[in-house]
Prior knowledge:
Chain A is an alpha+beta fold. Chain A has four domains: 2-65; 124-324, no CATH class; 336-404 and 429-514 and 738-870, no CATH class; 523-737, no CATH class. The longest helix of chain A is centred in the last third of the chain and has 44 residues, at 731-774. A two-stranded antiparallel ribbon of chain B has the order 1-2. The A-B interface holds A 6, 13, 16-17, 19-21, 23-24, 26-28, 49-52, 55-57, 59-64 and B 2, 31-33, 50-52, 55-56, 58-60, 62-63, 69, 71, 78-81.
Amino acid sequence: MNLLRQLLHRRQIYSDLAEEIQQHFAEKVEALIAEGMSCQDAEYAAKREFGNIARIEESGHEPWMWPRAESILSDIRFALRKLRHSPVFALTAILTLAVGIGANVVTFSVLNGILLRPLNVPHPKNLQQIGDHESYPDYRDYQDRNQSFNGMLAYRLETIGISIDKSVSTNWGIAASGNYFDVLGLQPALGRFFHASDEHGLGSAPYIVVSYDFWQRRLAASPHVIGKIVLLNQHPFTVIGVAARNFHGIDYFFWPDYWIPAVNAQQVTGWDDFDWRGHREFTVLGRLKPGITTQQAAQNMGAIARQLAKQYPDDEGLTLTVHKPGPAGNSNDPTKKAVLGMTLLAVLVLLAACANLAGIFAARAADRSTELAIRLAIGSSRWAVARQLLTEAVLISLIGGIVGTLVARLLLGALSHWQLYDMPTHFLIAPDLRVYFVAIVLSIASGIVFALLPARQVWSTDVVQAIKSSYVSAGSFRRFAVRDALLLTQVAVCTLLVSTALVAVRGMVQRLRAPLGITPQGVTLAQVDLQVAGVPDTQSRIVQQRLLDTAAAIPGVTATATSDNVPFLGASGWAVYSWDTTQLVPAHAAFSAISYSVAPGYFKVAGTRLLYGRDFAPDDKPGAPTVAIVNETFARLLFGTTNAVGKRFKLFDPVKLEIIGVVEDGKYTDPGEPPIPAIFIAYAQGIGPYMVSSPITVLVRSPLPQDQITSALHSALSQVVSTAPITVLPWNDAIDRSMMPARTAAVVLGVMGLMAALLAVTGIFGMASYSVSKRMKEQGIRIALGAQRFQVMRSTLSRPILILLSGSCLGLIGGVLVASLLAHLISSPSSHDPLVLAGVVLTMMLLGIIATWIPARRTLVIDTARLLRDS
Amino acid sequence: MAPTSKPDQRDLFRGALEMMILQSLRRQPMHGYALVQHIKQRSNDLLQVEEGSLYPALQRMLRDRLVKAQWETSASNRRVRTYRITPAGIRHLEREVSSFEQMLKGINLVLSPAES
C-alpha cells in the first residue's frame, strides 16, 4: 500500500526535491552576496560548496526506490539504447552467442534425454539393471536366489505381425515376465495388465497389453477393445489392457507397441528362448530392497552368478553386474561416449565464442574509453560503470541465448522425429525445464565471463589519462598480455574444433568409400515375414520358392535370389564353435558370427565375390551334407587362413557344417563397422531344427526404373503372400538409412568446425585490427624515423603469428585427444592421420594470416605526417 | 563526499545527523537551508552539514514519516519547504537519543584515564 502510494507520487516527490534544492542554492548565493561577494563569485563559491547537484538529487531519490531493481532497470534501458546505436556490433555479438549457446542447448538436451532423464516409472532411483543380456531360466534363478531385490523383471524385444480385423502390420513390442508391470508399479489406462499369477507354464497366458499410441492408431481408441481377439503371427491373443499414455517402456529410444507375457512368446515367434539357458536375450531389471546399496546387490548377484556357473555348463564363466539401466549405466556405451564428446565440443564452442566476445567487448570498452572516463570524472562510481558494461554483456548474452535456444528447439524437433529402420524409436530430447535452466545459466555466465575483461579495464582507468589521449598509453603492456592470452585460448579452442571436425568429415568420407562387399546399385529388396503371414515352418520352403519364381517372372528382372535378412536390412547371428569343441556352451564359443540363410545365386545378385570354392547348388538340400559359405574374416579367425574350403565347424549341438566356399568381407549392419565374421547357410537346409523361416528377403536385379520395379514387385509378391505386409525398397535406401547416425554426427561436427573457424577468423581479425589501430601512432613514428615498410609489417605481424602458431599446436594436441574420444561414432581408423593434422594447421595458419594481414595492410598506407599531426 | 577545505572535519554518521535534524525540528519547524545554518550555529561552527547528506536524510525521514513537509512562504518572501516533526518522529528521536547517550557514556568511560 505504502509502496504503491510512493510509486504514484514519486514524480511529485522528485520535482519537490529538485525545486527545494534549487531554492536552497539560491538562498546560499544570496547569503554570500550579503556577505559582500560579487554575484559571480558568490555563485562559484556556492557551487563549490554544494558539489554535484544532480548527484544530491539522485541520492535523494534513493530512499524512494527499490534501489537494486531500479538501478538495474535503468542500466538495462541504457544498455538497450547503446546497442541500438551500434546494431552491427550487437548483431555480431548476439549471433556469436546464439551459435555458442544453441550448440550447448542441443547437446545438453541430448545428454539430458539420454543420460540424465530418469525412467518414467514410479521411484526410478531404486530400479537397477542386472547384467546386460541374460537368459530366461537364469533370470528365474536370479529371482529365486537373490536377497537384494524386492522384485525382478525380464523382457526382450520382439517384432510380431499383428492382425486386427484382417489388416496386418508388423509391430515392435516386448515379451515380458508376468510381473513386469507390478515391479514397475504401473497402472493401466484401460482394462488390466497381466500379472505373475496369470502364468501357468508355457503358452498359458495369450494376453496382450497395447500401448496408448497403438490403441489410438490401430484400435481407433475404442473403449470396447478389452476382450477383443487379435492375431499375433496368426495366433489368437486377447487384448486385456491399454498402458498409460506416458508409458513408453523402459528403453530409452524404443517405444514398444505392445507387451505380451514371455511364457507366450515362443508360441508366437517359434524360438524356444523361454527355457534355453544358453540363449541370452533378456534384459533384467530389479527393484532394490530399501537399505540395500548397489554394491551390496552387485556382490549378491556376483555370488549367484558363480553358483550358476558351477551348476550349469551353459552358464560357465557367467558374471553379473548391477548398474543403472540405459546408456547412463554402461560405461562403454558408444552413444554415451559420443554424447559426452559432443557436449565437450559444444562447451568449447561456447568458450571460443566467449573469448571472441571478450575481445570485442574489451576493444569496444577501449574505444568508449573517453565516454567511460567522462562518466567517471563527473562522479559516476567505478562500480556503476562496470555494472553498466556487465549489464550490456549479460543483456546481449541473454538475447543470444534466447535466439540460440529457439534455433536449438527447431533442430531438436527435427532430430526427435528421426526413425531407425521401422522400429518405433523416439528420441525424447525436446528441451525440458532443466535444459532451459541450463541455457539461462550458460547465457548469464558467459555474459559475465566476457564482460570481466572490460570491467577490469574500467577499474584500472586513469581518468585524466583517458580523457587526455587515446587509451593505450597507460599500462598497455599488461593489457596486451591479457588480450594475447585470450587470442591464444581462442586459437587453441578453434584449432581443436576444426581438427575434430576434419577428422569426422574424413572419417565419414572413408566410410562412404569403404568397400561394402556388395553391389547394391540396381538391386531392389522385397521383405516379408512368413511367421507374420502364418506360414508354418514345413511350408516355408515352398512359399520361398514360389516368391523366387514369381519375382523372376517379372519382365525386366535379370536376376533374383532370396535370403532371410540381407546386409543393412535386419540381422541375426549365431555363436560359432570350432570342430573340436565338445561342450557347446556360450563360454566355449570361438566368436559369434552374423548369419544369412540364402538361396543359390545370392552372391551373384548381391554382387559379392566368391574367393574360393563354390556357390550353393540345388543339390544342397535336406539330407545332403550340411554346408556353409563363410567370409574371409570368419576363415581367418577360426582357421588362420582365408582358404578354408573343406574345413568344418559347429553352431550348436546338432548343427555341423562343412565350408564349401569363402566370399569377400563386407559390411553388414553399418558401413563403419570393423570386419565381422559372417556365415551363409543354404536356405533349403535350414539350421538344425530351425527353418530360419521368419523373414524372407527377395533380391531382384533389374535395369527398370525404380518406381516401376517397386510397384511390379509389390503387386506380384502380394499375390503369393497376402496375409502379411511386404516392404519393397531399393538396397541403397536401406544403406543410406543405416548411415544416418554417422552422417548426423559428421554434419554436426562439420558445422561446429565451421563455426569454430568463423569464430577464429573474426576473433583474430578483431584483435589484429584493434592492435594495429592502437599502434598506428607508434608505427607512424617508426616510418617517420626511416623504418622500412617491411620492418613495420613484420613487427605488426610477428606477435599475432606467434600466438597463432602456439595456439594451433595446443589445439592440435587437444584435437587428437577429443578425436580419439569420438572415434567410436565416426569410426575413422586414423584419427591421428597426418593428412588431417597438416590440413588443420594449414587451414588455421591460412585463416589466421589472412585475418591479420588485412588489418596489417593498413600500416603500409600510413600517412605519417597526418597521423602524427592528428594525435 | 565533496572535497573539504577543513581537514579535521569528520563525516557525521547517519544516526547523528538524523538526531540533530529531528531535535532542531522539534524546537521549531524550518526548511533545509535554515537547518544547515541552525546546526552550524548551535555547534559553534564545529559541524557543517553538507547538502549532499542533508537532503537524502530528509527524504529518508519523509519516507519513514518521522517528519512532514509543506511548501510555505518565508519571512523573506521566498518559497520554502518547511519540515515539521511528527509524533512518530518525536518517539524515534527520544529512543535514539537515549541509546546514543548510553553509547556516549560507554565511550567516555573507556576513553577516560583510569582512576585508581
